[in-house]
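Thread: biotinyl-5-AMP complex, take 2
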Amino acid sequence: MIKTPITENFLQNALQTEVFGRGLVEIRERISSTNIRAKKMALAGAGEGTLVVAESQTAGRGRLGRIWHSPPGLNIYFSLILKPEIPPPRIPLLTLTAGLAGSSAIGSLIGQAPSVKWPNDLLLQNRKIAGILAEMDIKDSRVSFVILGIGINVNLAEQDLPPDLRNQAGSLLISTGKTWDRTEILASLLGELERYYRLLCQGRYDEILGQYRQVCQTLKTRVRFVQQETVIEGTAIDVGQSGELIVERAGDGEILYLNAGEVSSLPAEPEEP
Ligand code: BT5
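Output below.
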């Protein structure tokens, strides 16, 4: 039984957007994945800003075939259809833009801004509270649409998590000791997403990257990057024009531009005696 469900009425009253969540909105009690549903709707012609929200997902997806744990009634799971008219090499910036918007919206509501672990995790007190999954559809070598899916742990307690996630996942409740109104958070997040998405579509990439660098905790730290068979260790020095992580490799100092892998932190190198 969901105590305070997310309803379209409440959402429309709280929303301050022009496009996101203003056209077609589908709110489901249970769904396989909001990304899968939104993709179906996009293929059937649904427009930009179409929103799918679910109270629970039976096959919530992360990147690279991973699972997004999606218990009912506690969290926010949603997907937006986007049709960004930006050059294809800039599309990965969407994920970073969403991370920035998430950090800004949650920070203003709860008074602690989550940091972003490159590229797509929002962390509070070093625990992952949200993940972002952007999936694009390409037709005739053009991006026809992008499904931007976001999951945020709101009122989830540690015991609601599977044991393997208990040390690494968090929620707004775990960090603040308070339960939060999910509709208010969703509305505020959609507002920030729309605001930053406009900047992106206006080509204001440097502004977005500048702000992203401020909240990205991966920069200036030692990292291990893993992508299939490739493992690279070094220092993350910057984020590039397409959202790639720029790493100075340990040992030979070579500068590498890394995409779409998994990054973990390494302890800082001991100071020279
Ligand atoms: C992500 O993937 O972080 C993207 C998650 C996107 C989820 C949203 S929910 C709405 C929309 N519909 C979908 O089907 N998906 C999107 P990735 O970076 O691959 O992280 C996945 C990893 O995060 C898992 O392997 C777990 O270690 C961890 N994880 C899974 N569920 C979690 C949860 N609820 N909270 C925190 N960490 C979790």
